[in-house]
Amino acid sequence: MSRIQPLKRISTLALRQRKAHLLRSFELSPQVLHASLIERFLKCGKANCRCHTGGPKHGPFLYLNRCFAKGQMQSLLLKSPAQIEQARRSVAAYAHVQQVLDEISQINHELLRRDEPLVAAA
Ligand SMILES: [Zn+2]
Fold first, then answer.
1. Which of the two residues, 78 and 3, has the higher pLDDT score?
2. By three-state DSSP, how is residue 68 classified?
3. Among 43, 80, 116, 121, who pairs with 111 as Cys (CB 3.0-4.6 Å)?
4. pLDDT of 62-93, one tens digit each?
5. Secondary structure letter of residue 51 according to DSSP
6. Segment among 1-10, 81-90, 102-111 with least mean pLDDT
7. Per-residue DSSP letter, 57
8. How many angstroms does the Cα of residue 58 sit away from the middle of ligand 1?
9. Burial level of 87, CB count in 10 A (0-12/13-18/19+)?
10. Distance 59 CA to ligand 1 centre (A)
11. Cα(35) to centroid of ligand 1, in Å?
12. Of 105, 75, 84, which is closest to residue 15 (Cα–Cα)?
């Protein structure tokens, strides 16, 4: 999702200003949640239902999947529209945090490449 920009052509001053702006405007949302939303179509428990004989499955059901350890995942079925809306906002809030951190990382990488201090002298 992060934009890979050709930072090499941007002045050190402009990089510092962009970084200062990102740090000033950054606010950690209390909704932040590192997870992904997955839609699933499922077969039901009724043996004679169309879903067991090649007909369309039921759904979509929306799950919030969260990895909490290597290879381990929590999967939460979202039931109410309010829950789904909150989950969407939370996942988007996390993506935003990641985007800001990525951009600051890119700027710092470029400053390091130029052998410039990462923290401007006071
Ligand atoms: Zn069914």
1. 78
2. strand
3. 116
4. 999 998 888 899 999 999 999 999 999 999 99
5. G
6. 1-10
7. P
8. 6
9. buried
10. 10
11. 28
12. 105
